[in-house]
Design a protein that fits this description.
about 120 residues; mainly beta; 7-stranded mixed β-sheet; about 55% strand
Amino acid sequence: QVQLVESGGGLVQAGGSLRLSCAASGNIFSINDMGWYRQAPGKQRELVAAVTRGGSTNVADSVKGRFTISRDNAKNTVYLQMNSLKPEDTAVYFCNANVIRTVLSRESRYWGQGTQVTVPS
């Protein structure tokens, strides 16, 4: 079994910062891509940022220049540093990881439970 545990969400005033973290644990041989998605009320879930095992990143246009994704492979953890937060960033943020559980396994996608980020207007 593999589980992802998120932390760092909360309520922050516009212009403030938060850092989300997500640690994967369980039966893990290696982790390929990791990422963050978010879903706001009335909107579809969208990709916020993703990072490969080698450190290559993709960041959504809506957060480019404000959010930074990173990972610590030794800790099986992905981070999302969120700066200059806006009310439009209010959403539930979900982390995901593509996990290879054994040396012969195909990767499987796992999701965290989500953490609420609220930025009042």
